[in-house]
Design goal:
6-stranded parallel sheet; about 450 residues; Dihydrodipicolinate Reductase, domain 2; Rossmann fold
Length: about 450
Amino acid sequence: MSNQFNRRSFIAASAAAGAYTMARPILGSQKTTERLQVAFIGTGNQGMGLLKRVLNFDLADVVAVCDVNEGSYGYKDADHFYGREPAKQFVNDTMAKRKNRGSWKGCESYQDFRDVLARDDVDAVFLVVPDHWHSIMSIMAAKAGKHVYCEKPLSLCVAEGRDIINVVNETGIVFQTGSHERSRPATQFICEAVRNGAIGEVKKVKTVVGFNNKIGPGPGWQPEKVPSNFDYGMWLGPAPHEPYHHDRCLYRFRFHYDYSGGQITNFGAHSCDMAQWGLNRSTGGPVEIVCDSAEFLPEGSLFTTATETKFRCTYADGVELECISSEPKVQARFEGTDGWMQIGYAGYSASRDELLKGAPPYRAKKGEIDAHSLHMRNFVRACTGDEELAANAETGHASATLCHIANTAIRRFPQYGAQPLQWDPKEESFVGNEEANQTLRRPQRTDWMTG
């Protein structure tokens, strides 16, 4: 099967300058009671979790699922069997019970995401795939007239995030970044309080991205046979070709720099996003960044992202953001001239009890809609014209960019140490450092290039 970017006629048309397929007219800015028809591209651990929420809270009709894996164990939760066929079965079984019919065949499964984008009846897609696929799938979906919910981080590198924004603006589709903390009532409360001066003038934010939660093979690892039900070539897509190993794929992709940026872009897309939100910097970014420490596995190991690190960045007004990986719980702690407030996976706290007066619970109670589901519902309602987006492409790009330039400083640490890098947030480039600027766009195999 060809992997050409313009595999189908509609893709060829959309690739031409200015030629885009418009979103279905019932959507966008017009309010409607018609049900949204959605597809899930990526049905692994995270994808299935989101898919189940769509069904549990009856947010939309799932008419298609897609994954390069037909079905297997071996995801983050090893006891679960995921892939396109288990996902299809789950959707159809769930809907059959809901519709009180013996069988419901309304959901189809696909190996190639381009076949999903070719369907005229798909209004929106949920992209729950490795980071190296985010920009390509987002751009192709937008050009095909589909609204897009793309998991965080928005992109693999700074330039790809800007590519996404440009196409979103050109096509007018609805685009949500999967930064679900922006839909959590408790996070909204803390960040709004900080922005409104509850702790005085903010001087510093401390963020945590957490430990690496997987250990890969060290030097001397051996390639493995590709499973018969797994399209490894399609999984690699635009990334450099490398021999198959199960620790390269599924959940563990995030510890390979070819496909992700480690915990910096994984959990940093939450903690650093909360930090920028509380600082009222959902667009733009810092002007300087420096890595104070970074540790990597021995050369030749399968995992290539940093195992432990600390970096600092400074904004134009002097506010400093510090990020560490040496603590387990993802969080953002705001320190001001009149106290502090923090929010993260362990809940929230503050220097004075009165700062938390009226704060909603951090976690939803059993049976209540949780932050992930609220974020997805917000996307669905934005598609039907009923709500403003919680995390649009610009927001996702700003947070991802902070993580990407941090990774540039981190990966330079073994050679240059704690050398500050100057950053121009308007031009989205490093100042006076062409070597660092080479990291702003990652190489892509020519048949999948987006920029």
